[in-house]
Amino acid sequence: MMARSSVHPSVLVTGGAGFIGSNLVDYLLEKNCEITVLDNFTTSIVNQFPENVNVIDGSIEDLETCKKAATNCDIVFHLAAVSRVGLSEDNISLCSSTNIIGTQNMLIASVDNNIKKFVYSGSSSYYGNQKTPHVENMDSQFLNFYSLSKATGEKLCEFFNNKYGLETIILRYFNVYGPRLPKDSPYGLVIGNFLSRKKEGKSLIVHGDGNQRRDFVHVHDVAEANFIAGQSNIKFGIYNIGSGNNHSINDLARMFKTKIEFSGRRPGDSDITLADIAHARKELGWIPKITLQEGIAKLIDGI
Predict the structure, then answer these.
(1) What Cα–Cα distance (Å) separates residue 217 from each residue in 126, 151, 199, 295?
(2) Cα(181)–Cα(20) distance, rounded to whole angstroms?
(3) pLDDT digits (tens, 9 = 90+) for 101-146
(4) Going from the N-terminus, what domains does the chain have, and what CATH number goes with each?
(5) pTM for this one?
(6) Minimal CA–CA distance to 177: which of 49, 290, 47?
(7) Could you read off the pLDDT of 162-205 as tens digits, one per residue?
(8) Residue 206's pLDDT is what?
(9) Dihedral sign computed on CA atoms, order 270, 276, 279, 281
(10) How far apart are CA 77 and CA 243, in angstroms?
């Protein structure tokens, strides 16, 4: 068996070809980590990685594939998921097999491989339409099956921590945006759509009255939160990963400096998201650095 390096940890990133996962891989490369990516490449954003990244084309729905991917790793960053709300509603079986069974498989594989830290990508959809700011000890409120499946993954993490001593950190992402954001991303969906329409010279489409408010957090800040969580000495914790501020969709649209049109509101959308990030700030020492204005300006410059 290969010796594990404490200086350059060996990490597994499930879903490493996706939007957040690929940005996390970039961040981990800068930290000189030894990286394995496990992805089935069905919704991939990145199809090629540097030669020093070990890539496994496979599914987290297969336990043996998970065990193979986690071999000789120190840390597992579990991002692979069915993450589109519409798809989760149309195909509950796929959502369950990926988000629930897939997470269970990765937890089993982590225990079998003596993983030091399991970092789970949770979702702010856990909070539903509850009063803001959202605090980690709130009860759940599910507006769609996706949110239920991700919360079930959290409970699996808690169980494996209690029963097997697998050190686990759950990061509840709010509306993530940044480089490689696809226009159909569940995280920064509206931003991806706005970028696409601005590039095509079309008016922006705002669903509803535009007064819905979202806590947008840059993907680079999310990647840093994952890295910090993986390096921490915390044995179990749940942390909101947002900016701690929110903006209306109308305010966001005005940052694009183009025409705006209004359309019907989409079902299953929450009215407002806002992360209380005091817990992550205190225990992880994590502070988001990129403001929405800065992040949007860079994205617009890049189209």
Answers:
(1) 17, 20, 22, 9
(2) 8
(3) 999 999 999 999 999 999 999 999 999 999 999 999 999 999 889 9
(4) 10-176+216-243+274-283 (3.40.50.720), 183-214+246-272+291-301 (3.90.25.10)
(5) 0.93
(6) 290
(7) 999 999 999 999 999 999 998 766 666 799 999 999 999 999 99
(8) 94
(9) positive
(10) 21
User: In the structure encoding, which two tokens stand for residue 218, read together?
Assistant: 């840059």
If we measure between CA atoms, which residue out of 33, 39, 303, 70 comes closest to residue 48? Answer: 39
Q: In terms of pLDDT, which residue wins out, 43 or 268?
A: 43
- Positive or negative torsion for Cα 290, 251, 123, 25: negative
Residues 6+ apart with CB under 8 A from 205: 193, 197, 261, 262, 263
Secondary structure (3-state) at 81: coil
Q: How confident is the model at residue 150 (pLDDT cuts 50, 70, 90)?
A: very high
User: Exposed/middle/buried for 168, CB within 10 Å: 0-12, 13-18, 19+?
Assistant: buried
Give me the DSSP letters along 192-208: HHHHHHHHTTPPEEEET
146 catalytic per annotation: yes
CA 144 to each of CA 47, 91, 126, 241: distance values in angstroms, whole numbers, following the listed order: 30, 12, 10, 21
* Count of CA atoms in the C-beta half-sphere (13 A) of 262: 8
Q: In the chain, where does DSSP find H-type helix?
A: 19-30, 63-70, 85-90, 92-95, 102-112, 145-164, 189-199, 219-231, 249-254, 278-283, 292-301
Q: Which two tokens stand for residue 23?
A: 């940005």
> Residue 265: its pLDDT value, please?
81
- Cα separation, 206 vs 212, in Å, equals 10
Dihedral of the CA atoms 171, 172, 174, 179 (nearest 10)?
30
Contact 214, 175 (CB under 8 A): yes
Residue from 126, 127, 146, 177 carrying the catalytic annotation: 146
pLDDT confidence of residue 269 = 72
Tokens of 71: 């071999």
